[in-house]
Design a protein that fits this description.
With 345 residues, the chain is an alpha/beta fold. The chain is 39% helix and 16% strand. It folds into 2 domains: 199 residues, NAD(P)-binding Rossmann-like Domain (Rossmann fold, 3-Layer(aba) Sandwich), CATH 3.40.50.720; 103 residues, UDP-galactose 4-epimerase, domain 1 (Alpha-Beta Complex), CATH 3.90.25.10. The chain has a 7-stranded parallel beta sheet with strand order 3-2-1-4-5-6-11, sandwiched between helices. Helix 1 packs across helix 7, helix 4 runs parallel beside helix 5 and helix 8 crosses helix 10. The protein is globular.
Length: 345
């Protein structure tokens, strides 16, 4: 039976990709070591009668990857060690997961003749003068994370040339949505803001908050990934998967604050506090989406505004509303970190 392998399937993006594939009746295998992924993200898939298998192991382990690749003819490679901040603290771990893991998966894919979609990163562009980041721009990684993810891209290009492996590199731009972890120092900014507003905490914004990002809702990203997976492109094609529209972190907070006021019945919400900018952060990130549209027919359907509403409502249902004491003005201790963390899997 033809199967799709999703690496890092217990993660935020991976679990949504698997869910969509299973609903379409496709056979799916995932490999995950659950170091950052969550088992609950996969709960119920096999119980619902889907053709779904889990291989518990690391993508840096060739034997585990070979087991996961059984009967596979298409691969969505999402597994990584996400977060710019974490890569600054743990550069060797980041390289091992993102670069060594990628060449291990590509090597196994060659043996199967499997088409590969690789989750690249918009951080590859770094800080460049061009407002819209177009795929042919020279890469300029600013952090160990972006360097490791770019290394994975280079392996994709070389494997396409040397082994005639069909690969699509999808550069993600700050993906957000339900199931994104909100309780970690490395949480994406949308998740962290939602958690803070619902709990009554004042989040921290690293820098002045005028850094901007092309925030993209998970459902639209998954649609783009699957279009690339089922395409017929040859060689290695690199595409941006995003909206082509940027929002500052300050503006993001104000929009979520409006959802909190309306959804939680609040007259006021806590103001964020600002800290020093983080090392390795890109100032502005905005995608040119023409190639994804022209080559794979990528046309986002949900959009940023509706995606943000859905996301806040999901966190409100998951985290719960604030207590009566918080509604009266007191705040819980703790300050969630909310810069512009890039969200992956």
């Amino acid at each position: 039976m033809s199967r799709v392998l999703v690496t890092g399937g217990a993660g935020f993006i991976g679990s949504h990709v698997i869910e969509t594939l299973c609903r379409a009746g496709r056979a799916v295998t995932t490999i995950d070591d659950f170091s950052t992924g969550r088992r609950e993200n996969l709960a119920g898939l096999r119980d619902a009668g889907h053709e779904f298998e889990v291989v518990e192991g690391s993508i840096t382990d060739p034997e585990a990857v070979a087991r996961a690749m059984t009967d596979v003819d298409r691969v969505v490679h999402l597994a990584a060690l996400p977060s710019v901040a974490r890569s600054v603290e743990r550069p060797l771990d980041t390289h091992h997961a993102c670069a060594t893991g990628t060449i291990t998966v590509l090597h196994a894919a060659v043996k199967n003749g499997a088409r590969v979609v690789y989750a690249g990163s918009s951080s590859a562009y770094g800080n460049q003068e061009a407002r819209f980041k177009q795929e042919d721009l020279r890469e300029d990684p600013l952090s160990p994370y972006s360097a490791a993810k770019l290394t994975g891209e280079l392996y994709c290009r070389s494997f396409a040339r040397v082994y005639d492996l069909p690969v699509v590199v999808t550069r993600f731009f700050n993906v957000f949505g339900p199931r994104q972890p909100a309780d970690s120092p490395y949480s994406g900014v949308v998740a962290a803001f939602c958690r803070a507003l619902i709990r009554g905490d004042a989040p921290r914004i690293d820098g002045d908050g005028e850094q901007s990002r092309d925030f993209t809702y998970i459902e639209d990203v998954v649609d783009g990934v699957l279009r690339c997976l089922d395409g017929d492109s040859k060689g290695c094609v690199t595409v941006n998967l995003a909206y082509g529209d940027a929002t500052t972190v300050n503006a993001l907070y104000e929009q979520l604050a409006e959802h909190a006021r309306a959804g939680l019945g609040l007259s006021e919400v806590p103001s964020p506090r600002h800290a020093d900018p983080r090392a390795g952060d890109v100032r502005h990130s905005l995608a040119d989406t023409a190639r994804a549209r022209e080559v794979f027919g990528f046309e986002p359907q949900v959009g940023f505004v509706e995606g943000l509403r859905r996301t806040f409502e999901w966190y409100r249902g998951t985290i719960g509303q604030r207590s009566g004491s918080q509604r009266s003005g007191s705040q819980q201790s703790g300050t969630p970190q909310s810069g512009a963390t890039e969200s992956k899997s």
